[in-house]
Fold this protein.
Amino acid sequence: MADGTTAVVWDEALLSYDMGDHPLNPVRVELTIALARELGVLDRPGVSMVTPVPADDAALTRIHRPDYLEAVRLAPRDPFFRGWGLNTPDNPVFDHMHEASAWICGATIAAAEAVWSGAATRAVNVAGGLHHAMAARASGFCVYNDPAVAIARLLDQGAERIAYVDIDVHHGDGVQAAFYDDPRVLTISLHESPLTLFPGTGYPDETGGPGAEGTAVNIALPPATSDAGWLRAFHAIVPSVVRAFQPQLLFTQCGADSHRLDPLADLRLSVDGQRAAYIALRELADELCDGKWVATGGGGYALVEVVPRAWTHLLAVATGDPLDPLTPTPPTWRKLAAQRRPGSVVPETLTDGTPPPVERWQPGTTPDPVDKAILATRMEVFPLFGLDPHDGRD
């Protein structure tokens, strides 16, 4: 094992996943890499920049149906194309859609293989995290499901226990669906309640199929949940379940759309709360997986105000010491951001000025809506791991 090393997977070809006038704009990835580079994160000792190659059909068809791949290839040639979840407002057809989507999957495979092979301890693909795509349907801005494709590759290479933790504001439904009946993959998703947000799944009673009971864990949080409640929910459930599962590798989807400025959802996290989540995830990987951690991006639609700062914190946590939240954003980066997105409010520091409080979940008290969500998940899942849902100890 190459102790303490990190692979950052990057190529400008990953910016070709571009749906045009659409919330999922690749400028967020461009500005993330630019900010991390300006702050020296990508030049740290032990960081290797890895150039990916597109995923081939053999890799993609581990998750997606061959006829769906063919539809993705054909759709840009037919202006009247219908079906497969494509050519909709959420999933518009764009030129070279198959190739762009295969690049994203190839980059996440490269990250996963770098960690599994021992070439790196940790790996990041900020352009990845397209967690909604189904076996034969585009969904939620996602054409191919790169986390599922990469996890399938590791299973084929002999992995026996992979924990997938999804902190995007939306339920990680596509990854859950891909492995719902597979006891080798634990999927955990913290998300805004399906009662109020797409995709309408991710209830606590979705716990895994026959033979895989307990390997799907869903924490459905009420709208307006802020740093304190979100982190309380995370620590009340995620570490206990992941420890019980004993994974060989931790795979995370780190969508930044849980932020209070995100235009498409209604959680209320700060960049500082998101940074705290990344640190907690790395600590879990260090504790349980000899540090083996694969991280992707995901959602995030405050393209200048939030995503580049959040994912620069993610890259910093993955490559070494976390960045000081008070770190200024470099003037050259601020100029680039203003050029790319005129009219945006360009942040001057890496903090929102709100250090996240640490609150421990306590059973037996009068619960607020977040505590009710915590208990609902614990009641469904903890007994399946032999854990006491009412025990407030870590």
In short: The longest helix spans residues 97-117.
